[in-house]
Amino acid sequence: MTVREFLAEQTRLADAATPGPWEFHQDDGSPLDISEVCIPRPDEEMPLSIASLLEDHDGAFIAASRTSVPRMVKALEAVLVLHRPWNRGRDVVCSHCKRNTSPMPEPEHWPCPTVLAITAALEGEHE
Predict the structure, then answer these.
(1) What is the C-alpha to C-alpha distance for residues 29 and 18, in angstroms, rounded to an integer?
(2) CA 63 – CA 126 distance, rounded (Å)
(3) Are 103 and 64 in the same domain?
(4) Among 14, 4, 11, which residue's Cα sits nearest to residue 83?
(5) Same domain for 101 and 57?
(6) What is the pLDDT of residues 2-15, one digit of tens each?
(7) Could you read off the pLDDT of 13-49 as tens digits, one per residue?
(8) Do 4 and 59 have their domain in common?
(9) Which residue segment(s) compose the domain that 99 sits in?
């Protein structure tokens, strides 16, 4: 799966999920109280519990992921838009990166270090 396919799949999953933000309600130690991830429902008094009996760190992560994952996907997509390939005749360079800071800097060859770092992080995880 390419980086763009991976990001598109994360967007599809987020778009299909119940809108956020989700909430994490931590067990306060009272009898019958449990930690749970909930979806607030404006038309209802009680939020909808979607996961319970979680370790507190897991529940907090799941609840935060509902809004943080789409934000991270958009950030990565914005970086990839800046660092796109540009065909310069006999070679392909990054449309954004320069190799040096001289008055006439040379463009960085494609894929640039920024794209390579993103690709390594996202594609390496799913092989």
Answers:
(1) 29
(2) 23
(3) no
(4) 4
(5) no
(6) 999 999 999 999 99
(7) 999 999 989 999 887 777 767 889 999 888 888 888 9
(8) yes
(9) 83-127
